Amino acid sequence: MSVAKIRLYVDHPLGAGQSVPLSRDQAHYLFGVMRLAAGGQVLVFNGRDGEWLAEVAEAGKKGGTLACRAQTRPLQPLPDLWLLFAPIKKARTDFIVEKAAEMGAARIVPVQTEFTNSERIRQDRLQAHAVEAAEQCGATNVAEVAELTRLDRLLADWPAERQLMFCDESLAAAPAPAAAPHVPEGAPWAILIGPEGGFSEAERKRLAALPQAHPTALGPRILRADTAAVAALTLWQMRHGDWR
Amino acid sequence: MSVAKIRLYVDHPLGAGQSVPLSRDQAHYLFGVMRLAAGGQVLVFNGRDGEWLAEVAEAGKKGGTLACRAQTRPLQPLPDLWLLFAPIKKARTDFIVEKAAEMGAARIVPVQTEFTNSERIRQDRLQAHAVEAAEQCGATNVAEVAELTRLDRLLADWPAERQLMFCDESLAAAPAPAAAPHVPEGAPWAILIGPEGGFSEAERKRLAALPQAHPTALGPRILRADTAAVAALTLWQMRHGDWR
Description:
Alpha/beta knot, homodimer, 2 domains, 7-stranded parallel β-sheet, alpha/beta
């Protein structure tokens, strides 16, 4: 039996014998683009029930049904990690969301800083990028993309137990600090990537006053925000996450 | 005195009082786009003499001259690190070159593997991306982009002292190996990112037989080649490079 190569995120319960209805877009993709017919195989996941092998039960132009056969993998929980970043140009913002999803962030939060240029994002479009990245990278869950949130409000109400790895390009010349030794294993974390225009003085003060904040340098060169996001996620995953 | 914000790579010797001729493109950028006039300040670097503050001596539509004033930073050598990758779609190939330059690779080598789809690259266009990334990230030198090279030929003639960190998506489930302990400090290295179509059996055998090769897993998810490039460069810089 050949292994199904197509992976599809579905917002529906999965279990042995479970029938899963397809949306119009999913039907178009499976039957129009990928040319699957009845009996064709797909891997599905919903972020809760792991990954399942499913077969096409009905194939139509505007919809269809899958039938779940067997679980292929259990749910592999993502680390409790948020990625906060200030939206930049569209292509680079899309890229950050795709990369954060691939790198295993559980929640992606676009933040509005004082020097953020872009003031609107399309949350639904970014969420679709996160879904596509999860389908592509073999994850069994999908990062949640939040609505654009003001950084000052987020910091004013920062959860007491959540650590914050705060990447600041003004630290580019500083030596990389060692891993934070006093943080309990398994603590929730967030990574904050500085906006390309830098933080304001008020933002810097607020961050400096936050006891959960860990200023972190990402090498001696000044990285673009999208590079910094992948590099910071790598550093975090190696120190605290599921790359260890 | 305000600090010059514009950074420009020039292929010309730099030193106190040195006069630096500008190309037509550079003149267009400085005088047409950035609106600099005589006396305006620019930071220049050439990959050999560090970074210098220079002033516009002559500004014309088709050219101009800068006069070097003072060295602002010495040359900061890049680690002796190559990044080898199989070219993919144009935007993602551009991205890999930009990111490799930002992350401090000294040499970027597009490689043709058995399963590489793209068979041609524009070396000059990719080199221009590397220059732009160096200007942007504050580096004092520019990564060299090589012509497309066949992987089998490269491996057949692999330099004895150069270590090879070889990132293979088939290792995604394997635990990350510890840093290679027997490699001498300061040894030259290369990172090889697996092509999106995977390696062929012959390529796998050749890599397995190479004593300098270090198979490396990049976490439990399957990363796209562009994500893998940034993640692998981060991992390498933290273990062996200038992020320590």
